[in-house]
Design a protein that fits this description.
Radius of gyration: 24 Å
Largest sheet: none
CATH superfamily of the largest domain: MetI-like
Number of helices: 14
CATH architecture of the largest domain: Orthogonal Bundle
CATH class of the largest domain: Mainly Alpha
Strand content: under 5%
Number of domains: 2
Structural class: mainly alpha
Helix content: over 70%
Distance between the termini: 40 Å
């Protein structure tokens, strides 16, 4: 007991205390905007403009939450965002895993250039690409459709997913492939039966990133859709800001509701997400 007590130095206690204080301050700093959004969403429109502002609503009301579902068709917006984001995440991760497996296991002419080209596409800002995509989708009849948005998001997410999945597949020993081929397994069989189960945490991380990218996008949804039935959640929230009027309680309610899928995904998949993000961190 005396030896254990002697090991605890005052400097260590001070350092740990400072770390905890810093972490608590960071958490408070990050949570204050969400607390203010929640408070504003439960106020009346008149109280939202009150000066000085109030943290605790004087009159609690859920009219803004009812309004976004009744007056703003948030049910349709959520359906559109869910379909588009899930399809984008699933397709980009699956094809990214196939491409990543090819880059990881096969060596062919132009391989390095192609990998570098995939990375270079991520350096182009989306605002430069949305114009050409608008013309292409209009020509082929996919403008203002969910399919058109999914294709557009795939071109953004697929290079990223390929790079992510290649890094995870590189950690899978090639000896497993060779052993499976000796037993008569095909390359596709190895990919589906051996590689994918091993890199499952990496796939979860890739799916989450692709899903959140498609879910939170505003620019592409704004430029590649025009009708009310095709509006996504982010675009629906943005349209609560009018030219002469901003309905702050409804805007805050829509923002909180729109952010819930991301929060829920992180809460339930955080273990797999952390495993996926750290899977390629150690170099053997």
């Amino acid at each position: 007991m005396r030896m254990e007590a002697a090991k605890i130095r005052p400097g260590d206690v001070i350092a740990k205390t400072l770390i905890w204080v810093f972490l608590i301050l960071v958490c408070i700093y990050c949570l204050i905007p969400f607390a203010w959004m929640l408070s504003t969403s439960l106020k009346t429109e008149a109280e939202a403009f009150r000066m000085p502002p109030t943290w605790i609503p004087l009159k609690l009301t859920v009219d803004s939450y009812i309004g976004i579902w009744v007056r703003k068709n948030f049910g349709i917006y959520f359906f559109n965002s869910t379909v588009i984001s899930l399809a984008t995440a699933a397709l980009s991760t699956f094809f990214g895993a196939l491409a990543g497996y090819g880059f990881s296991r096969f060596f062919f002419k132009g391989r390095r250039f192609l990998i570098g080209f995939f990375l270079a596409t991520q350096m182009l800002p989306g605002v430069l690409l949305v114009g050409p995509y608008f013309k292409i989708l209009s020509k082929v009849g996919l403008y203002d459709t969910r399919t058109g948005l999914i294709i557009a998001f795939l071109t953004i997410c697929l290079p990223f997913s390929t790079w992510m999945m290649k890094g995870f597949i590189d950690k899978v020993p090639d000896e497993l492939d060779q052993s499976a081929m000796v037993d008569g397994c095909s390359r596709l069989g190895i990919f589906f039966k051996i590689v994918l189960p091993i890199v499952a945490p990496g796939m979860v991380a890739t799916i989450l990133f692709a899903f959140l990218l498609a879910w939170g996008d505003l620019l592409w949804a704004l430029c590649l859709t025009s009708s009310e039935p095709m509006i996504t959640v982010t675009l629906g929230i943005a349209r609560t800001v009018g030219e002469f009027r901003i309905i702050w309680p409804m805007l805050m309610a829509g923002s909180l509701v729109g952010g819930m899928p991301a929060i829920i995904l992180y809460v339930f998949l955080q273990r797999l997400l952390v495993q996926g993000l750290t899977a390629g961190a150690v170099k053997e």
